[in-house]
Structure formats: C-alpha cells, structure tokens
Design goal:
heterodimer, A: 70% helix, globular, B: mainly alpha, two-stranded antiparallel ribbon
C-alpha cells in the first residue's frame, strides 16, 4: 500500500509505464463511451459555442452545422478531466507551481521575456490547431487514436510532424550550449 | 453518467499519464525533435501497442467495435502534419499536453495556449469549405487500416508492429540513445 502511494506521488514515471496507461485508457474510452481520445476537437466545439453566443450568424455555416456542432461535447468533458488529472498528478508530486515560463531550457535559449514566450505560444497554438484540423486530428486524436486502429494516416502524420519539427528545433538550438 | 462521468474519468487518466511522463513540460517535447530525449516517442509507441492489442483483442471477441478508423487522405495528413510540427517544436506543446501543462499551473499554456487553440479552431471552421474540403479529396483512401490497404493478415501486421516497437525499445535502452537527462525526482 505504502509502495503504491509512494509510486503515485513520484514526479516522473517511465514513459513506457505512463504510455501503457494511456493505451489502456484508449481501450477504456472505447469500452465505456464508444469514443476515441482527442484534444483538438474540444476547442472546435468550444469556439463554436462562443461564436454562437456572440451571434448565431457566425455558426450558420457548413462546418458548425454538419461537421462539429458547437456545445459541451464528450471531448470538452474529456478536456476537463485531462486538466484535473494533470492537476492532481502534479499536486501529489510537488510538480504543481504557477509558472509564466517553462523551467530552465527555454530560458537559456529564448531568455526570460514572458511576452516573447506568450506570443510564440499563441501563434504556435494557431498553427497546431489548424494543422490538426487539416490532418484529421492531433497527437492524441490522430497519432494515438489512429495508431491503435492501425490507420496509415496516424503514422504519416507523425512522420510529417517530425519532418518539420526536427530541422526547426535543430535550427533554433544551433550554437546553443544546451 | 455516461455523458460526463466517463469522459471526465477517462480524461483524468489521460492527463495523469501525460503529466507523469513529463510531457506537460516544454523540454520533454522539444528534446524529442532534437533526438536528446525520446520520451515522447517511447510514450506514444507504448500507448499505440497496448491500445492496438487491447482494442483488436476486444474486437476479435466481438465485445466492441472501433468507433472510427481515422481517414487517410495523403495531402491533408501530410500538410497538416508539417504545419503541426512547426507549432509543436516552437512552443513545445500540442493540444493535449497544453491542457496537461495548464493543469500543472503553467499559465503560458493556460492563457495564450487556450486563446491560440480557440483562434486556430475558428480559423479552421471558417475556411473549412474553401480549404479543407479541397484538400481532403486529394489521394483519399478513406477509413483504411494498414492491413486492409495492403491486403495483409490482421494479426500478423499487429504482431510485427508490436515486435518492431519492443525491439526498438530494447535497442534504445541498451544503447542509451535518446535517454535524456536523468529526471529530477526531488519533491
């Protein structure tokens, strides 16, 4: 019992153990809810809801009518659970802290400007959500959820993300001593 | 119950596993692209193998059906992935890990992250007919699986995939390639 609690409070788990837990979770999602995991979809449902509140005219289009309905969907509840799970994990291990910048490595390369970090995150998030939309899902919704079904798209997507991710990060870190 | 208890419970495990693997931190995500720390890859491939075996065993038993096999339409999968990779390596997060980062108190994830994802979602929705509907028709193979596409045996394909991943893990652990810096386990 004590060993189990100690393990739950550990700051890091082996990626093999944590990844296997996510694998079991994907199976659980299918068994309990007939759903696949995904994170980018929640933002589509939510922005639809926001736009509908501002003006119903904004959601009077093909996408919000036939593809992703505005509203508090299964994916939105999943996102709420995701936040909670990460919060409890971080609280128990002492990894929870209010931060405005990532720890260490980011600061050594990009400096300590909060504005710079927040602007980069904002524009990157736009690219991430738009890219996930084009591809048919994100790391969870396409790579993992497609991967467990052995869909070629999952592996093609991961390959493409690495094809830009690797050269760009090598370029950003060129000549930096980290 | 099924409307919100199940997804919140499932999401909880999802967020827990991301946070425990450290993927809610900028370094972990970026260092996979720099080949310095392959935790992201190890995490994803573990999830895929466990999930694939689990799901297909249950499908074989006739207990579940796969809700959706993600569609393969080459141009969209590739261009989307290329754009996604740019954002992921710049910010060191993706939609799921952004939420996990927000849960651990990272305000740079919670505030500009959420606003950016909502903006991107709106942009995608309002350009859907003009952009997505055109791209999706190029080289569209529908909801195929690898074994269906190439007419392979289902269990052989899954077994080969699982064995390949396990051998890769064995090689990575033996060679210490992409092992990353030791994790800070202090509390």
């Amino acid at each position: 019992m004590r060993v189990a609690i100690e393990y739950l409070r550990r700051k890091r788990w082996s990626p093999y153990v944590a990844g296997s837990l996510l694998g079991v979770t994907t199976v659980l999602a299918i068994v309990l809810s007939q759903q696949l995991l995904g994170s980018s979809g929640a933002f589509e449902n939510l922005v639809g809801l926001i736009e509908k509140t501002i003006s119903p005219k904004l959601v009077d289009n093909f996408y919000f009518k036939f593809v992703m309905a505005p509203g508090v969907s299964w994916q939105v509840y999943l996102a709420v659970g995701l936040l909670l799970g990460a919060f409890v994990s971080a609280r128990l291990s002492g990894d929870f802290r209010w931060r405005v910048l990532p720890d260490k490595q980011w600061r050594e390369v990009f400096g300590t400007s909060v504005a710079k970090r927040w602007v980069i995150v904002f524009f990157s998030a736009i690219l991430l959500e738009f890219g996930a939309g084009l591809a048919g899902g994100c790391t969870s919704g396409l790579a993992i959820s497609g991967g467990i079904a052995m869909a070629p798209s999952a592996f093609i997507f991961v390959g493409a993300a690495f094809a830009t991710g690797i050269p760009l990060s090598l370029l950003l870190y060129r000549g930096k001593g980290v | 119950m099924a409307t919100y208890v199940f997804p919140i419970l499932i999401g909880f495990l999802f967020g827990w596993s991301l946070q425990k693997a450290g993927l809610s931190h900028y370094d972990k995500i970026v260092n996979v692209f720099r080949m310095k720390d392959l935790a992201v890859l190890k995490f994803m491939m573990s999830a895929m193998v466990v999930g694939a075996v689990g799901v297909y065993v249950l499908v074989g038993l006739g207990w579940v059906t796969i809700p959706d096999v993600r569609a393969t339409y080459l141009l969209g999968n590739i261009v989307g992935g290329l754009v996604f990779g740019v954002g992921m390596s710049l910010a060191g997060l993706c939609p799921g890990t952004m939420l996990a980062g927000a849960g651990q108190g990272s305000l740079d994830y919670l505030i500009p992250g959420t606003l950016g994802f909502l903006t991107g979602a709106s942009l995608f929705a309002h350009t859907y007919e003009k952009i997505f509907n055109k791209i999706v028709t190029v080289a569209n193979y529908g909801n195929v699986t690898i074994f269906g596409w190439f007419d392979l045996n289902k269990w052989l394909t899954i077994s080969v995939f699982a064995v390949f991943v396990l051998l890769l893990f064995y090689f990575l652990e033996k060679s210490k390639l992409g092992a990353g810096a030791p994790d800070d386990l202090s509390r």
